[in-house]
Amino acid sequence: IFLSRIPPSAAVNSAVAMAKRKAGHSAAFVNALLRKLCDEAESGLPEVEGEDEIVRLSVTYSHPTWLVQRFSDMLGLAETEALLRENNAQTPIYAAVNTLRTDAQALISRIESDGARAEPNSEPGMLELSATGDIARLPSFARGEFFVQDPAALRAARLCGASSGDTVIDVCAAPGGKSFALALDMKDKGKIHAFDREARVPAIREGAARLGITCVEARAWDASAVFSELEGSADIVLCDVPCSGLGVIRKKPEIRYKTREEIAGMPEIQRGILRAARKYVKPGGTLVYSTCTLLPEENGEIISRFLSENPDFSLDFEETLYPHRDGTDGFYMARMRR
Questions:
Q1: How far is residue 147's CA from residue 211's CA, in Å, rounded to a whole number?
Q2: What is the tens place of the pLDDT at every residue in 294-324?
Q3: Residues 258-300 pLDDT 10s
Q4: Which of the residues 160, 172, 239, 292 is marked catalytic?
Q5: Sheet containing 117-120: order of strands
Q6: Separation between Cα atoms, residue 158 and residue 330, nearest integer Å
Q7: What pTM does this model have?
Q8: What does the H/E/C string look like for the chain?
Q9: N or C, where is the chain less crowded by C-beta within 10 Å?
Q10: Who has greater pLDDT, 178 or 22?
């Protein structure tokens, strides 16, 4: 239904072949069901008759009704439909230029000589890639001339305003993209303490080594606990906290199937991380909070409560990005000063 270049018969045959490999007894059922669907869907998706708009959007765009209702309460029906449509769209691959080794124009030439395509994005230092195949096989990637990152994530890192010589703590750093972006802003001069769970620390170290970044020190640490040696030491603290991820459905389609119960505990985790992170910020320093979700209870409501409980911090900037409006991941970011 959605693919423009794949004939229905080929799509059905592929699905039946997969069914035979994974669950042979189901292949005949899969074949019959999909062929009937093809016959009935020549004029597009079937109408959902006798149902309200929330159910219609849920069926049409394959999102659970509770999530459609939530987005509708936040955005209204028209914008919700635009968001759901964008959640089902294919997303480009974005590359942040490693300015320690190259510049955007030179990197475009190298990527195209590698057989892929690249063009500048509206976010400075960001390229949009296509026809890459396995991106890790590109020689320009192996040489550490770029790293993969969405423009929204790069914007959150740049919101920190890092400069050469700063001391920065990235409390939920893996796989390392924001730490790497901070290092570029700092011209690899200063110190970035990159914390995450032990299993995720090697990815940060490997990425920094590939990019030739030396100012990032990756360490296994629980973000909700205070690393006492660093209290009051940081010019900048970045909290890109764990979240429901409902801003990146277009990249991780399975996220839409999270239940309300599964994500209900996220705000308490986020508040705990923020409470610990505040202790690293020196007077006059910066605290940045970000998520890749769109839910207010994980975003603005967290910041409002934090500011009411910590009057020594003030809100300096706040922004929410939406896939259907901004062409980026759904992202929230807030910058506070101490």
A1: 8
A2: 999 999 999 999 999 999 999 999 999 999 9
A3: 999 999 999 999 999 999 999 999 999 999 999 999 999 999 9
A4: 292
A5: 117-120, 126-130, 93-97, 146-148
A6: 17
A7: 0.88
A8: CCCCCCCHHHHHHHHHHHHHHHHHHHHHHHHHHHHHHHHHCCCCCCCCCCCCHHHHHHHHHCCCHHHHHHHHHHHCHHHHHHHHHHHCCCCCEEEEECCCCCCHHHHHHHHHHCCCEEEECCCCCEEEEECCCCHHHCHHHHCCCEEECCHHHHHHHHHCCCCCCCEEEECCCCCCHHHHHHHHHCCCCCEEEEEECHHHHHHHHHHHHHHCCCCEEEEECCCCCCCHHHCCCEEEEEEECCCCCCCCCCCCHHHHHCCHHHHCCHHHHHHHHHHHHHHHEEEEEEEEEEECCCCHHHCHHHHHHHHHHCCCCEEEEEEEECHHHHCCCCEEEEEEEC
A9: N
A10: 178
Q: Scanning the structure block, which residue is given the tokens 């980026």?
A: 328
Rounded Cα distance between 291 and 288, Å, is: 10
The question of whether 292 is a catalytic residue gets the answer yes
Measuring CA to CA, which residue among 145, 200, 154, 160 is closest to residue 177?
Answer: 154
In contact, 182 and 152? CB cutoff 8 Å: no
**pLDDT computed for residue 40 by the predictor:** 78
- Bridge partners for 320 per DSSP: 332
Q: Is residue 48 packed enough to be buried (19+ CB in 10 Å), middle (13-18) or exposed (0-12)?
A: middle
- The residues near 36 (Cβ < 8 Å, ≥ 6 apart) are none
Q: What is the largest CA-CA distance in the chain?
A: 68
> Sorting pLDDT into bands at 50, 70 and 90, what band is 3?
confident
Structure tokens at 178: 């924001």
Mean pLDDT of the chain: 95
Please tell me the distance from the alpha carbon of residue 71 to that of residue 74, in angstroms, as a whole number. 5
